[in-house]
Amino acid sequence: MEFICAHYQEKFFLYLPYTAPHVRYEVPYLGVYADRPWSDQEKIYAAMVGRLDRGVGQILDLLDELSAASSLPTCDGLSILPTLLGNNQDLSERFLYWEQSAGKLRAARRGDWKYRDGQLFNLANDPHEDHDLASQQPQLVSQFKHYIQSAHQPWSP
To answer: CA-CA distance, 90 to 92, in Å (whole number)?
Structure first.
């Protein structure tokens, strides 16, 4: 919140790495879910989702207060503000790129396709990424490789 207050008058990118609720659920407190007639796992999951929702809501409320919602950062020249505000926006043909370990692990996604470490997956048919289709889709692999190469920015500590 301090960063947003300090930089709201300029363009900025806010990386907000909430951990998505997943197995081995952990949360500091159960809050309003403590007395629900649910299993402990269901209570913890609900508390995790609620915590994430509150955190994002606080940021959006602050941006509204600062009248900065209209200047939220864009990615690759494409404003994602409609999506952030809950409106329909077709991003299916847009590449999404991410990397881990200072650029050692790179991946990209476009529509139903995901490319990582030389492997290509159709997530619509293979959500667990069990079947590598790279040899069957060389043109798509080439597009992903080119995109990843152009999207990567050298990293230095």
So the answer is: 6
